[in-house]
Design a protein that fits this description.
seven-stranded mixed sheet; 833 residues; 41 strands; single chain; globular; disordered N terminus; Immunoglobulin-like
């Protein structure tokens, strides 16, 4: 087991509590008395609710805020997926990168509404019309195992699903989440189910469906419970509905940046719940559940003591509660150490004690990126704001498996910072920073996670955890810590970067996909960038049999940090059509590195560093293109322009001012990016010039847009066109050629059924369902049991040129290196040439 894995469960459990009640850093404001008092009430409360749905943004944030902040329940949201299959309203991240961003958006949301966050290993593979299709792509038993594990670890009294288990009317992932929740509800309490987890069975009291307005027709009039969820947060005074709106607004990649709930201060709000299984309830979802410490053997004394602490709490002198908290802490130590909830409450009590002491800690480092084996100079800073005697005993490093490191204990003085500086070495076995669910290659439906203790957790534990050890009233208080780099951004805001573990160099191909003609050679460029000075070694490519590489190796010597060098390799494709993954690797001092560097950076979430395998998709295929000069109008973010370059075209990114009849005439084809009309307000006024360009003999290819009130049909196309929610989710759906003699299917590449093999995620989305007679539908396809849809690819002659509207997901297929998608798109570009 790696050092990261050996400490992950402890670190994650501490992080879960810290996310709800975070002790501020040295420079931050003290925890308010109101927040401490509320956390004491939360400590007293043992009721718990687990909310279950399929994706980021499925959760009822107002209910979570009410349960977590209003009733002080341990409240968590289990999102089966990380939202990998959706579209991105902010930038170019799709698939697993989008899932990383949405993971952080959910964590940001939970920091606002007070809930906790869990995930299964299920992959969001895109829209699914049938839950049975969903369960065919997901590994049902693995997802059930994950859900059972989370239930057994979190131990909810009540489970709530967002969606009805009755199929129809919603995303197949949604229905599947409810169907699986019902099964997991029973299996979690069965000792014969998943015994390999080594966890004690846990049977929740009941499971409800939180009846939603969009599925209320599936609710029966019986077994319904309705609870009022209105009210205000006792700490901030904000309405739960307003907190919910702020929470949901964190889902900015889904376009919720300005979201606000319809509720408000004093406005009544109720939520209906239909019982799905378990004991009946009449007045409340927690009917008959003992939510006090009395439910635990030996808990009655805990209940009594915490009641006394709450009653005697002095808002102007939180430290006055410390003696009673220490006594409570001793009493809590008599309860079973292996009880998961008791362990969590111990951590929570330590956080409360820390807040009452006004004890703040921070470990700073000059650089937040470290190579395994390098020394790290750590500056530990501690300050206490109360007069309670506190001794700083020292520092522990769990990854080093060592005892406390210190020269001598320090007696802390109120409001006077104390510090220590030490140099420690990051173990050479420390894994490079990479989201744990992306470390190994999974399947289309499931992430691979080799360490079962990580399953369910939202993100990696700290790369190098630290424990600061104190003595308070003869008791040892251990506070988790981790190194951070404190920096100030351009706006003057202080930013804290957590430690990332990096290689000494990173590698990057010039493109993610390279297109070859069978048997032909062309050069491929690889960049190597130094993260450390004097990085010297050899660079090579790794390819499957049949692909020839030259030269075999190339030496490099990078003198300065940040120095970048380009290397060119000649790759020869096999004589037949083929695809391959080509990997770049650098060997330094006998250690081989194969990682590229990707950053996800948005203002509303912490910066995320990804270090996946440095690879490209090599595609050998017969491809002809007649339109060589292509203009590209950016939409919501995609990499189609890069793919067009791989076809041998010269691509120009067109800014708004370029969209004039005179300037457009130089292009053989112009392509509009995905959802351009959804995210840009400047295009409508430029469409007449684009239509004039078509009439003069140009080709305009418009990729999909979402239907909505913000779209005007007469702006999308030169002829009438109406978008719909129609889509084909089966990526293997048979394609019918409706116009087999049309140039799109014949010139310059002869399109056959084989060109639709190997497509990923889906065929297409948001197909038009009504169009002018000038349009020719080219293809038809359908999901199982449905009628064929003909709006996926429409072509119209307009004047001397061609206008194309397509809902086919080229923005997924081209970056994935699907050969047939390149051949078909090449024909679109070549129309009229």
């Amino acid at each position: 087991m790696t050092p990261l894995a050996s400490v992950s469960r402890l670190a994650v459990s501490l992080a879960i509590v810290a996310a709800v009640f975070a002790i501020p850093a040295i420079a931050a404001e003290p925890v308010s008395s109101a927040a401490i008092l509320q956390e004491l009430k939360s400590f007293r409360e043992l009721g718990s609710v687990l909310y279950v749905a399929a994706h980021p943004d499925d959760e009822n944030t107002e209910l979570i805020a009410y349960l977590a902040r209003g009733r002080d329940y341990r409240t968590a949201y289990l999102s089966l997926t990380r939202g990998d299959g959706g579209q991105n309203s902010l930038g170019p991240e799709f698939s697993e990168k989008l899932g990383v961003a949405r993971t952080q958006e959910l964590l940001a949301a939970r920091r606002i509404d007070g809930g906790r966050q869990f995930f299964s290993r299920a992959v969001d593979f895109g829209f699914s019309k049938d839950y049975r299709e969903t369960l065919n792509v997901w590994d049902k038993q693995e997802v059930l195992s994950d859900m059972v594990r989370i239930i057994r670890e979190f131990r909810p009294d009540v489970i709530v699903t967002r969606f009805s288990p009755v199929p129809g009317g919603t995303h197949g992932h949604h229905t599947a989440s409810a169907v699986l929740a019902l099964e997991a509800f029973k299996l979690a309490g069965d000792p014969k189910a998943f015994p390999e987890q080594g966890l004690s069975p846990w049977q929740a009291r009941r499971i409800f469906w939180n009846v939603s307005s969009f599925q209320q027709n599936k609710a029966s009039g019986t077994n319904l419970v309705r609870i009022e969820i209105g009210g205000n947060d006792p700490v901030t005074g904000e309405a739960f509905s307003d907190i919910a709106g702020q929470s949901r607004s964190m889902h900015k990649t889904q376009g919720f940046g300005a979201y606000r709930s319809s509720g408000g201060v004093g406005k009544p709000r109720s939520e209906p719940f239909q019982l799905l299984d378990g004991t009946s309830a009449t007045n409340d979802i927690m009917d008959g559940v003992d939510t006090t410490w009395n439910r635990l053997p030996g808990g009655a004394e805990i209940e009594k003591q915490i009641d006394g602490i709450i009653t005697q709490f002095k808002p102007q002198d939180a430290a006055a509660s410390v003696p009673a908290l220490l006594k409570l802490r001793s009493q809590l130590a008599t309860l079973p150490a292996n009880d998961l909830i008791v362990g969590e409450k111990r951590t929570q009590l330590d956080r409360i004690l820390q807040a009452c002491l006004g004890l703040k800690i921070e470990t700073a480092m000059a650089q937040a990126e470290v190579v395994p084996g390098e020394p790290m100079e750590l500056h530990h800073l501690v300050v206490v704001h109360s007069s309670i005697p506190v001794r700083w005993i020292g520092t522990r490093h769990p990854a080093l498996k060592e005892e406390i490191t210190s020269t001598a204990a320090i007696n802390l003085t109120a409001d006077q910072p104390s510090s220590r500086t030490e140099t420690v070495t990051l173990p050479v076995t420390t894994p490079l920073s990479q989201p744990y669910w992306l470390r190994e290659e999974g399947t289309p439906g499931m992430f691979r996670v080799d360490d079962p203790t990580l399953i369910g957790t939202p993100e990696n534990a700290p790369a190098f955890p630290i424990e600061q050890v104190f003595e308070v009233g003869s008791q040892s208080l251990v506070i988790p810590d981790e190194p951070v780099q404190v920096a100030t951004n351009a706006a003057g805001t202080e930013i804290r970067h957590k430690l990332d573990v990096i290689p000494p160099v990173s590698l990057q191909f010039a493109s993610d996909v390279e297109v070859f003609s069978p048997g032909k050679s062309h050069s491929v460029e690889v960049a190597i960038v130094a993260a450390r000075a004097n990085s010297a070694g050899t660079l090579q490519l790794e390819a499957p049999v049949g692909w020839t590489l030259s030269p075999a190796k190339q030496g490099f010597d990078l003198k300065a940090v940040g120095e970048r060098k380009q290397f060119v390799f000649m790759i020869t494709a096999p004589p037949q059509a083929a695809t391959a993954k080509i990997i770049a690797s650098a060997e330094i001092g006998g250690v081989r590195y194969r990682n590229q560097r990707d950053e996800i950076s948005y203002p509303h979430i912490p910066r995320q560093l990804l270090q996946p395998l440095a690879s490209l998709k090599a595609v050998s295929l017969d491809l002809a293109v007649r339109g060589k000069r292509v203009g590209y109008i950016a939409g919501a973010g995609d990499t189609v322009a890069d793919a067009i370059k791989q076809m041998g075209c010269e691509v120009t990114l067109l800014e708004t001012e370029y969209l004039t009849t005179n300037r457009l005439k130089d292009f053989d084809a112009v392509v509009i990016g995905v959802r351009a009309f959804n995210v840009r307000k400047d295009l409508a006024s430029r469409m007449p010039a684009l239509f004039d360009y078509v009439a003069s003999g140009g080709t305009l290819i418009e990729q999909y847009n979402r239907p909505g009130n913000d779209l005007k049909p007469d702006q999308l196309a030169p002829y009438s066109l109406k978008l719909s929610g129609d889509r084909v989710t089966d990526e293997n759906a048979e394609m019918t050629f409706l116009a087999p003699d049309h140039p799109v299917l014949n010139t310059p590449n002869k399109i056959t059924q084989a060109d639709f093999d190997g497509w990923v995620q889906e065929r297409g989305i948001y197909f038009p369902n009504q169009w002018d007679e000038h349009f020719t539908p080219i293809l038809a396809c359908n999901d199982p049991g449905e009628s064929p849809l003909k709006g996926g690819l429409l072509v119209a002659q307009y004047g001397k040129g061609y206008f194309v509207y397509t809902g086919l997901v080229f923005f997924r297929e081209l970056p994935a290196g699907v050969p047939g998608a390149y051949r078909l798109f090449a024909n679109l570009i070549s129309l009229g040439k």
